[in-house]
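Project standup — Tuesday

K.O.: blocked on the structure for the chain from last sprint. Re-posting the sequence here as requested.
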Amino acid sequence: MIQITHSHPVPFLSDFLTFCGIVEAKRPKLSQKLKTLPPSLLFEMNGKMSTPLNTVKPKSPQNQYNTLNFFQALAIQGQLFEKKVVKSNFELHPHMDRLAFFRRMEPSAQYLFLLKVFWCHLDFEEMGEEFGVYATADLLANFISYACDQRELELNVRGIPDFEISLALIKAKPILHFMEQMGFWKLKLQAKNRDGARYRQIETFIFTELGMGLLSILDAKTPLFVWNNYANGGAPAVADEEMLNLLNTMDKKGQQAFLATMLEAGAEMGFDIENLPNISIDQLKAEMTTSVEMRKAGFESAFKMMIPVSQRLDIEIVDEEEEIKGNYHFKVAFAHDKKIWRRIVLAPHHTFEDFHLAIQRAIGFANDHLYAFYADGKPYSNQSIESPYEGAEPPYTDDVPISGLYYEPKHRLAYVFDFGDNWEFQITLEKIDEESPLVLAPQIVESKGKAPEQYPDWDEEEEW
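H.V.: unblocked you, prediction finished:
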């Protein structure tokens, strides 16, 4: 068994808690586009890590801080912190109860919790690399299986014969560095030159006792494609309880059809199913049952013989329920003439696309151009929520609910319709009514002033 403390066998926990403490105290503003931490704060935190980087400068961006980038992903995906819009700025806020509970956990439980966040809830695609999540997960899983089969404490990259395994060392490179932070291995890097640019390439993996034990469990008992939500395309598990229950209600003909459909879907997703057509229904049900039982026991149960933990990881990662606050009452006024306005009421689950359509109805426009909302109330700022179209950058109006922004009454938004004619509107949140029943559809409850014509010079006989 391996005893884990905040600083042994690696200072991973100590560094992560330092990161959390600084972010909790500072509640920093994030960059609007990439949602990254300020360079000055990153530089300060780097100096407080157990092994600070000496290659960064006070203005270095976050993607040059591998450890801190990893910590932010763990903190958010583990729901210890969340991104909020406060007074027109994105900030990183702590979930106080969850963070306090995490700090009270014994170090072994803290480590397994963060391992669970990494293995089950980390979206590799969001870590800033240009690769697909399916390909990365597949390559990483293949590399781990290969490393486990070798049973060697050192693995030289040049000795790997399989092209796909070698490719994993390129495509999944950031993830491999994250795993180094967690104590899986030490990486020996070799300086290289390409087209006049210097970079460092992984040359050798030196596996730790902790790493070899964890890899064998992750490979055999908690496979990535069963446990990682994003590798499964958002599904909590490939073999979950509902699927098993469904299979048990089918007759043999239905079960065979189900198996054929599953294999077909796997082939379309690019999975290697060469040996799967011979699998029997009983084998499939047995594998599903094992997966369901393990999930019920908890992720940490797979590691109980290796890492002693006296408590279950009770701060589960769950989809947070939408906080229903009540009906949102907005005043929408023409920016060029604030005497012309409309009052519109929306429920928290209505999207900004719904809001846009309600405004179009309220002013009698034709909804025939692109548009955007701006969370800071400043037209054309970088805090935009864009109309969904090819080429636009997220977030998109049909994805963001009205309750998706953190604001209070009197908060102002801007809305621009038709970037050619440039119709600008000022929107004010007047109140959030928690007493009345939620409206089923956006409601236009009050109007003042006649809206201008969208096309005042339009000759009906002119061809467009």
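K.O.: great, moving the ticket to review. The first strand starts at residue 81 and ends at 86. Residues 327-448 form a domain with the Structural Genomics Hypothetical 15.5 Kd Protein In mrcA-pckA Intergenic Region; Chain A fold (CATH 3.10.290.30).
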